[in-house]
Task: structure prediction
Amino acid sequence: MSRNHVSATVNGDQVEFLCETGQTLLDALRDELRLTGTKEGCGTGDCGACSVMVDGRLVCSCLMLAVEAEGKAIETVEGMAKGEKLHPLQKKFIEHAALQCGICTPGFLIAARALLERNPDPTESEVRFWLAGNLCRCTGYQKIVEAVLDAGREMRGA
Result:
């Protein structure tokens, strides 16, 4: 099989990697770049566990080919914290116990950050609508929604 050279920006860092033609972005992030925070839940784009941002758009990385990342800016859950300082969403997920097994958590965090960047003061209904593409089998959704709303308040300084 032929390997393709890809150059992209991941979490603010310029990276280069080789990937197979049919390799997904999810697999390249995990296997080539060793960024294992992004998880595979379904492999069909139905669960949101593999959500990342690509050029400012929320994307299921299991549905995007790695070769399509050429020249793109990708943000993963590893890029949320600044050193040891957690992003407000990460802190609120911990405070509200909005996680259990952790498979869905990175996708929820990326999707919630995308929402709060677009709408810093969402209603509960807006949070639920925005996160509808992310599935959780452990926690239910109430604690996740509460964590997102609380993080929004903190980020707005309310």
